[in-house]
Design brief:
Number of helices: 1
Number of strands: 0
Structural class: mainly alpha
Helix content: 55-70%
Largest sheet: none
Shape: elongated
Distance between the termini: 22 Å
Order of helices and strands: H
């Protein structure tokens, strides 16, 4: 049975004192961007379903 996400809340803490290496930061950034894009797609689908009703 598929799971339907009706609401999605994302909370991100940004630390400006980041001293991590650039490779780790770029990998984390890529994962973060993928998560954000998936979240936006899901939110758009939810809004579209609301309009159809």
């Amino acid at each position: 049975m598929p799971i339907e996400i009706k609401e999605l809340h994302i909370k991100i803490n940004v630390d400006e004192k980041a001293t991590a290496t650039t490779t780790a930061a770029s990998v984390d950034e890529a994962l973060l961007m993928r998560a954000i894009s998936e979240s936006v797609e899901q939110a758009a689908k939810i809004e579209q379903r609301k309009k159809e009703r």
